[in-house]
Amino acid sequence: MSINNNQNTDIQANQNEETRARISTVKNLKRRFVRNDVLAMVLLFGLMLIAPLFPSVKGWMLSQASLVIIYIIAALGVMVLVGFTGLVSVGHGGFLAIGAYTSALLTLHLGVDLVVGIIAALLMSGLIGAGLALIFLRLSGAFMAIGTLGFAFFVGTILNNIPFFQGRDGILLDANFVLGFEIYDHGFYLVSVVCLILVTLFVYMLVNSGTGRAFMALRDAEKAAMASGVNRLKFRTLAFSISAAITGIAGALNAHVVNYVSAEVFADIWYSVDILMAVVVGGSVAILGPFVGGFFVVMMPFYFEQLADFSFIMKGVVLILVLRFAPAGVAELILRPLKNARRTILRNVGGSMVETKEPKDD
Amino acid sequence: MLGQQILSGLATGSLYALTAIAVVVVFRNTRTINLAQGDFAMVGAFLGIIFLKEWGMNYFAMLALVVLCCMALGGFVERVVMRPVAESDWLTLFTTTIGVYYILHGMAGWIWGRDTKAFPVSFEATPVEVFGALISKGHLYNMAIALLIGGVLWTFFTKTKQGIAMRAVTDDPETAYLMGIPVKFIVTLTWVMAGAIAGFIGVLMAPIIYVSPEMMDEILIKGYVAAVFGGLYSFRGAVIGALMIGVAENLAGGYLGSHYKTSVAFVMIVVLLAFRPQGLVGIQERREI
Predict the structure, then answer these.
(1) What ipTM does this complex have?
(2) CA A190 – CA A259 distance, rounded (Å)
(3) Of A111, A194, B16, B216, which has the fewest CB atoms closer than 10 Å, so is most exposed?
(4) Pick from B102, B107, B232: which is nearest to A319 by CB?
(5) pLDDT single digits (tens) B125-149
């Protein structure tokens, strides 16, 4: 009897050991996947940073690239809202305008450094965003869309009609200084890339933090999240404010790369819609999404410059096809095989311990 | 002066009201914010030019044919583009109509060119005196047609079987389906109706604002604001909202200066939503915070 018992505990001990070994392998694998992700990002950003060193890259290419980067930053801002909280804004052009004017006016009147301008733009947009959140968060889907749209026009009107903002003539900036050095196309490109890196890192950390999980919990199961102690007002306001702040950075960069701000550009509804479209086409749940979407939205009209109408049609067709066949966005389409492969590897090693939930099909 | 401003405000407002009604018709039954609504009217206006100039039709035959074409366009968009994504969330439906907007815009620019064209029928600007204020004949005529369309729609929704079925679908699609109402057919009918209204709007607006691919952009947005103002589910609310916006715009244009004219609607909507998140005649849907 006692012998039998001993054997049983032996088997159990063996099993435990085996389980523990498996768990540690799975953990190692997961850690390696994260490391690979980070490595891929570092590689991408590294390439972007050294791109100006290639002899065939010209100044105009870099300013075009800066515009793409600015769009990606704005799209990342909208993604925080749309992707992680499920709230939809069609008025982020308004926050771009606030960012652009904050930085441009500071540069014009006080001659501040670009770095200061960007930080001021971020704070200004974030604060105004937090205030507006209290109005907009009460609106449901379609109402919020029109409300935010109204806000974008509202900003446009104020900028256009109050003399201090010089809306009708626009503000011309003659030079950009970063940390005391005057910068041109190359320098500006680098500043944009650095901003993009910082924003991407921030969003990545946000998404994987408790705050990010609270956003997603509120999106997926509002009542359950609240029951578990997630403060809805606090986290939604925070998300809106962060989203506005990031978009504000893009606005400030935009003002300086074009050297000119005018209210007409930002108050245009299609400007805000384009940013939203970048997020929808690229995908709003993966960080890669805004990169793909931003590139698509800026480069499409650029390549079809001679065929403006054709580029309109293409935009529409692509949008409809993406929504029909890859509602989660193009990025999801690219990433899905990779995710599936990783899941298979984990399942082979970990067996039943790894959650084998299939990815949702929507 | 004040009466004059209000009267011309009502004239503009009645045109916004038609757009707002079309917006509400589609939103009630499909939860779709249809940004392509204005472009249906734009296509209608271009077709109107062709029918009048190249085919030499008379005005009323042209109007009928344009309305028919726009109905076909609405039905086509629903069947080909919207139906496959009909079960998706709100954002997907909304962005899909943006896709339709881009395509119609691009096609119109491609086929008919980007420059503004005059509509062969000129706007009847002869002033008529109404209650001591002056208004042009054309505006009176437009208001009458808007009123007529409103009346037809009201009869449709209260007296006909299809109209009542449509309201049933609005209230509860599943129950309506179980009661034997062909929900899919009703949804198609919704879009066809939106097309029909767009056809009228296109022909009515064309003499006032000229014809170009962008002609409807501003009016569409105003129509939207009006619809949201009224709560997005209510026809009455949409019409009231549209008339209020039309009048407020004219008053702001008259007393504050024309710079403020276009943005008044947006100030109004932001202020209204801050206090009444469900709109003026809102019956449902507000998010709690």
Answers:
(1) 0.83
(2) 16
(3) A111
(4) B102
(5) 777 777 767 777 778 888 888 888 8
